[in-house]
Amino acid sequence: MSETKIALVTGANKGIGYEIATGLGALGYRVGVGARDEARRETAVEKLRAAGMDAFAVPLDVTGDQSVTDAAELIERQAGRLDVLVNNAGISGEMGPGWVQDPTTLDLDVVRAVVETNVIGVIRVTNAMLPLLQRSTSPRIVNVSSAVASLTRQADPDIEIGPIMAAYSPSKSFLNAVTVQYARQFAGTNILINAACPGLVATDFTGFHGPRTPEQGAATAIRLATLPDGGPTGAFFEDDGVIPW
User: Fold this and answer.
1) How confident is the model at residue 3 (pLDDT cuts 50, 70, 90)?
2) How far apart are CA 193 and CA 170, in angstroms?
């Protein structure tokens, strides 16, 4: 089996996900570009290859059981194992004026859609990829979260945490809680799993508002994806260190 490390990044066709794929590719990883949109997925792979990186396309809709199963089978054929899984794919859900999700008027279908992608999708992909990850000597799982998931920060009136997002923010809190459960399950093994906050990054996800570039937003996820053995697990990180739950 090849010594080249294999990574899968979901939602890797653009924005932070693409920059995570780029960063891992620059470190010598062979990167699976997971994405739903065929044209964007193929364009991302072509760009990575043009930059000298080893990339391959992984058709992947994290909300579809068959799509995720097919993606795991593709990676098995392509590489035989997986060393890094970055669960980056996510949605904000429909926003109201001022980029607000008012809990008192929230459409329950929006909540369902956000949780299906941001939480259930992560569980679906992680469990499908686990047999491949367990063939690695140093498997790493990174769940891309957000500082707005921090209940400590959300509940502190002295901390500016942005607008009320009653579907998106709790979905990321849920994701963090799931991350901890996986870390507990894998305690004492070589699987390290952590949550990463990219910060407020100017991408189409944020309407291109935010002080950080996609490259800056990708840095913490890349660091967690390349942790040495014995590194932290079951924690929530941003550039400056651990974020309170």
Assistant:
1) confident
2) 20
